[in-house]
Amino acid sequence: MNSKTRSLIILMLLPCLMVYVILALIPLGFTIWLSLINMWRPGETHLHFVGAENYVKILTDPMAMYSLRITLIYTVVSVAVEVLLGLVIGALMYESISVRRTLTPILVIPLGIPPITVGLIWRFLFHPDFGAFTYWLRTTTGLNINYAIHGDQAYALTIVMDIWQWTPLVAFIVLGGLLAIPTEYVESFMIDGAGFFRRLTHLYMRMIRSNLVFAIILRFMDSFKVFDQVWMLTQGGPGTATQYVSIFLYRLGLISWNLSEAAALSLIILLIVIIVSNVVTKIIKR
């Protein structure tokens, strides 16, 4: 490659690099700087360097640790169920054209609804007094759901809501990977008499590892920062039962105006996501 070609490549990449610097590196640098000073509100004039003090405050704050803990549990449970269900649904759609034609329009519906609208829909469906699904459960099973009072019900409801909305995405990612498998492999398994679950565990899962890694990391990052639908459904309540880390971060930074500690917490979240993503990638691709 001569110098002229190299210069042309750099010139062609320059607009993308500028966008990346403006939208990613500059905000990241500002967040790091903000986490190392003592800014409590916009326009603060008496600023001084405090080092790791904001990180220590966050890591020793019981409410911050509580929010991180329930967010991790929420993320692990929802992503695990979504991947398992998405794997089975994607495999069924791959093996049957009729199933694919039937499920595709149904599965697209949750993906086409904005998260904030999803929260509003579930809020009305499970309203303690006039919710349609709440009424059906009460009249058919005697189960009385009141997520506005019972924290465990609210917590479980947010997990089910996430599973309902994002399992179709995992199913389509799985389906895309399965469609790339040579048909000879599937036919050989069928000739050997392998059942559906044997094909699923011994063939499909091994052939679409990259798709599974992508789906798990994508859903982990998205679930870990869940905000819109949970805010519309519970606003972090009752009490702090569903105060996930994004809601705690919102209240810390934009209501209490503790900007420096909020910046420190956001960087801790970023570090957790990076570590988990690398661990998942190594485990699945081992």
UniProtKB/TrEMBL annotation:
It holds the Pfam family BPD_transp_1. GO terms for cellular component: plasma membrane. It is a multi-pass membrane protein. Residues 68-280 form the ABC transmembrane type-1 domain. InterPro entries: MetI-like, MetI-like_sf, Sugar_ABC_transporter. The keyword Phosphoprotein does not apply. It comes from the Archaea. PROSITE patterns: ABC_TM1 (PS50928). It is found in: Cell membrane; Membrane. Its main location: membrane. Keywords: Membrane, Transmembrane, Transmembrane helix, Transport. The chain crosses the membrane at residues 7-34, 72-94, 106-126, 163-182, 262-281. SUPFAM superfamilies: MetI-like. Belongs to the binding-protein-dependent transport system permease family. This is Sugar ABC transporter permease. It comes from Ignisphaera cupida. The lineage of its organism: Archaea, Thermoproteota, Thermoprotei, Desulfurococcales, Desulfurococcaceae.
